[in-house]
Write a structure and sequence with these properties.
By secondary structure, this protein is an alpha+beta fold. The chain folds into 2 domains: 14-141, no CATH class; 148-311, Thiol Ester Dehydrase, Chain A, CATH 3.10.129. The protein contains 7 helices and 16 strands. The strands form 5 sheets. It has a 5-stranded antiparallel β-sheet with strand order 11-14-15-16-13. The chain has a 3-stranded antiparallel β-sheet with strand order 2-1-3. A 3-stranded antiparallel β-sheet has the order 4-5-6, with no helix packed on it. A hairpin with a 7-residue loop joins strand 15 and strand 16 (303-311). The chain is globular and about 65 Å long. Bound molecules: zinc ion.
Length: 312
């Protein structure tokens, strides 16, 4: 989503943020005692000297510890759930708080080697990490998508805050129909192969391009429906509203999940959503969102998913 809070550099931390812009993870070191440290400070936390300087973290980048967050720290981060929050060692003894992307969390282990991702969002470059073998590019521009960028602008200005107990106003959203399109995500063979390995579903129709060219009714490999379904986590839906005032939000699962048309490997997918139902329950307000994922340019959806969210 578009209105996630963006960190604001201070005079002490601005060198760190400039480093991320040029693809470097910078930490501080002390000229007096040699101690190296993060987060940014005016003095050395070991000898109290003010003679400190910035330099690149030496690596190796390793996972120090992590947790899986299924309730967003702020509502704006709903589209990133579940979020993998991590402490990453950027050289022996120096650790940075960050979040992980493109990680199969079931296989994640403390000590795993990682590599940094420099994610441009708005005017800031943010630091994430991923597996060494991830196919993600090391620089990701979340503001340059020609489809997503103008929608982001419109959502920041047009988003309406609605209290989670305001059933009338929430119910009125049902009539507003689908949102504009999200950013798009490329579904390439490397991504499909990674999902085949993760899920154990390595059927040739997904993983063998040559056989699929000759034998598949689709003329090539197609993505797993389950893969396309979870790619919604990489898409930012430009909702025009924001539910506020709740203590917690629970993802209840799905009322309905369908894969009406295949996604040929190599295509780009994008999504849109609408509020399908609103129900006041004793424990809170239940909102059903219909998410539709399409291959760009196709007029039939590839995934229809009715997600049920409970605000309490
Ligand atoms: Zn020192």
């Amino acid at each position: 989503m578009s209105n996630k809070p963006i960190p604001q550099p201070t005079p002490i931390s601005s060198a760190y943020w400039r480093g991320l812009e040029s693809g470097e993870v910078l930490i501080q070191s002390c000229r007096s005692c040699g101690h190296r440290f993060f987060y940014s400070r005016l003095h050395c936390p070991s000898c109290w000297s003010h003679d400190v300087e910035w330099s690149s973290a030496r690596g190796p980048y390793r996972l120090h510890t992590f947790t899986i967050s299924r309730v967003p720290t702020l509502p704006e981060f709903f589209d990133e759930m579940p979020q993998c929050l991590a402490v990453v060692e950027v050289e022996p003894g120096v650790r940075v708080n960050s979040a992980l992307r493109d990680i199969p969390v079931d296989v994640l282990q403390v000590g795993d080697p990682l590599r940094p991702l420099f994610v441009r969002r708005g005017e800031r470059t943010l630091l994430y990490f991923t597996r060494v073998q991830s196919s993600l590019p090391s620089v990701i521009d979340e503001t340059s998508d020609p489809q997503a960028a103008p929608q982001h602008d419109s959502t920041t200005t047009d988003r309406v805050a609605i209290h989670f107990k305001d059933i009338d106003q929430l119910t009125a959203l049902i009539d507003t129909g689908f949102t504009e399109w999200s950013n798009s995500v490329k579904v390439d063979q490397a991504l499909v192969n990674a999902f085949a390995e993760l899920s154990g579903d390595d059927y040739w129709i997904h993983t063998d391009p040559e056989r699929a060219r000759n034998e598949s009714p689709f003329g090539g490999t197609i993505a797993h429906g389950a893969l396309v379904q979870v790619l919604i986590s990489r898409m930012r839906i430009p909702f025009r509203h924001e539910v506020v005032g709740f203590q917690s939000m629970v993802n209840y699962g799905s009322n309905k999940l369908r894969f009406p048309s295949p996604v040929p490997v190599g295509s780009e997918v994008h999504a849109r959503a609408r509020v399908a139902a609103v129900e006041a329950l004793a424990k809170g307000t239940q909102v059903t969102l219909e998410m539709q994922t399409f291959v760009k340019g196709f007029d039939r959806p590839s995934v229809i998913n009715e997600i049920v969210v409970l605000y309490m």
